[in-house]
Design goal:
Number of strands: 12
Radius of gyration: 38 Å
CATH architecture of the largest domain: Up-down Bundle
Shape: elongated
Number of helices: 22
Structural class: alpha/beta
Distance between the termini: 20 Å
Number of domains: 3
Strand order of the largest sheet: 8-9-10-5-11-12
Amino acid sequence: MMGGLDGARRMMEREVSKPKNLGATLARFGRYFGRYWLILLLIAGLIVGSTWTQVVAPELIGQAIDCYLFPRPGVVCTYTQEDARAIEARFRADQSLSEAQRAEAIREAKLSGLLGLVGILVLLFIGGAAMNGAMFFLMNWTGLHVLYNLRREVFQHTHRLSLRYYAENEVGNIMSRLTSDLETIQQTINFALISVVSGALLMVWIAVKMFQTNFGYALLSLSMLPLMFAATLHFSNQARKAFRRSRQQMGNVNADLQESITGVREVQAFSREEENIAEFMRVNAANRDANVRAASFTSALTPTLEALGFVGLAIVVVVGGVAVFRDEPLFGTVISLGTVFAFVQYVQRFNQPIQQIALLWTNIQSAIAGGERIFGLLDTPPDFEDAPNARPLPPIQGTVEFVDVWAEYKKDQPVLRGINLRAEPGQTIAVVGPTGAGKTTLINLIPRFYDVSKGAVLIDGIDVREVTLESLRAQIGLVLQDSFLFADTVMNNIRYGKLEASDEEVIAAAKLVAADQFIERLPNGYQTVLGERGAGLSQGQRQLIAIARAALKNPRILILDEATSSVDTRTERIIQSALEKLLRGRTSFVIAHRLSTIRNADQVLVVQAGQIVERGTHAELLAHKGAYYELYMSQFRRQDQAADGGLPAPAAVVPA
């Protein structure tokens, strides 16, 4: 586990040191949103309408003061038919009314005008709330669809990545990108993004309104803005770095957790619980510290902006109040009490989105950091893909040729060197040799899990690189030493080899390989739901289901990678009998650790140090007394004697 985690940490360090392009990441998100441009256009209209209601409200409050509560000359009441002074002048000119009637009529007219302004304010607040609700719903709907498309694209890409990628990267780290990173992006899209956009528009609109009213007073009211901007820039940049490291550390936690749970049997068998717990505590502590650092910058930003906002508000009240009380012009313009109240509202509404944007921007930084990791995964190219002119592989007969094949996992470090072989349709090819000789690499080249670095692999004379991967692998069956079973019914696990197969075809495949005998004894027979990776079944039972899966697929080429090396002798005989039926008439490549398989093979290939050092039948190679003879004498002879009734056969003779 330590080696895998060290690899994850090295990858994390590379990501931290790598320059990040904020604009490119946002532009890439923009392409996903572009599919919903009509809805985004409607959202933009709602943002403008909602912002307008917030900009107009302070002006209405100011006019309520200047036009009715404390009327003064020179004030233009744009939202009323007449102000208090005009009302009073009109009724004073009406000589038909007594003084008491005139006073009562003036009070009622002023109250009516004031209530009219209040009614407009109420309608504005209701309209703004309705537009906000619709805006957030539409944005949430759009964001969920964007995330659906993004998650689907990432999942599809993980299935296109080559096996080399999964050998070099932890599953937990990959899962973290699909879960934790996408969850952060979802939270940001659903709320933070639209709040930042609407807040920015509100700030610009308010600033324009303030400068139109009194340029100097507006400039003084916004004097704290540079300091607020500098604080926001500093804390958000630091928070972005901390959030990126937090996301990467979360990937390490997931990788460690997945590895520990998957290997729990080995952990308990070797009494490594305390060491694993200590390692997880270390990784978990690193994740905690990264989150604490990110939270510290976020927490420091709020009081800093609030303090600067209160200073700006104090400047508005003091400077404006003094000018009103002294009845003196302010920056060349006489201001009213209503203007001061309006500016107080403007500054409060201006400062609120600054604080909101600053806080949400740190969340956006976290989402951008997650987006960088997601797009980094999407930008990881598969080792190989279908060639531009690739064609479907036609139905094959089963001739397989290796022509001077070289293969390597790392550049200039060949695993296979100059492999040449030919398998005729229906032949069984047994591949034997010591661990690390290149046996698995050799058979992995046939379904093109890896590509040759030189030479060619041909099926019926066609280079496997010239056909589509789907059509190639559709005609090849594979049974591994530890075949993967899904947490699904037995029926569906077998049907995985041919999804369109009927229940009758699935049962026939199980009967062909004698798997039906134990399946029918399961609690619900073929409808029994298996545990994760086939938990609850023995190794032999899992292998029989895997063989039934391959039988249902009915491939022309069959690959068996140590399919019987981890079962007991009795189960081996059952599996061997099933394999004999399955191998009949197919071109088969078998990594053989059992003599019973090798004896019946048409060719036995002895692989050492990436080369075929001997080939022939079992009898021919024994007579030759070369490398295979030595392997037989040291490894296989006891199986031969056991088959003749001499010695008990060991369960597994040659290590995988």
